[in-house]
């Protein structure tokens, strides 16, 4: 078990009378974002589900399953109460107004309709505005945060684009997501291998056909 210590300043009565340090200790039971997640309630719910489908939640293979699922939900839904804009860091570089592409960013999310995973990759292209560049790893972090909650692929795509537009104010952004949905491959229509492709365009990527074409060529790997 780890212990994570958080210190926050607070005023005794007024700013002139000084400040004190308030220390909050959080254990690994809470985990990242754990203050928003009721793990005990999840454990009870999973146990109820196991009983509802006719299983014995007390047998050896299942006795720890409710705890495992609660721990997993804490991880895969960690983005639910985070602001993805907090992940972005901006730095400035003179005369930098060319396209930047971060391609094939792995993503894993949960479809909110059936609570089954969809997995794939995201491609993010943006044109810096005002010489404002985004740290490349921060783009991947935005994809990660936006993916870690119950999602729709269409909305995920738009949230990535909108986050970058708001945080960096670029001249344009294009986001393309390709993913395979287990709700289509293991149930229902059962079409294994089928992929869903969505895009979100902002700024010049949406209004200028030539710019959009160049971005899509970069993503498809056919740029010359």
Short key terms for the protein model shown above:
disordered N terminus, about 220 residues, about 30% strand, GTP Cyclohydrolase I, domain 2, two-stranded antiparallel sheet, 3 domains, GTP Cyclohydrolase I, Chain A, domain 1, 5-stranded mixed beta sheet, alpha+beta
What can you see in these coordinates?
With 224 residues, this protein is an alpha+beta fold. It folds into three domains: 30 residues, no CATH class; 42 residues, GTP Cyclohydrolase I, Chain A, domain 1; 136 residues, GTP cyclohydrolase I, C-terminal domain/NADPH-dependent 7-cyano-7-deazaguanine reductase, N-terminal domain (GTP Cyclohydrolase I, domain 2, 2-Layer Sandwich). Helices cover 33% and strands 30% of the residues. It contains seven helices and nine strands; from the N terminus they run ββααββββαβαβαβαα. Strand 4 and strand 5 form a beta hairpin. The N and C termini lie far apart (53 Å).
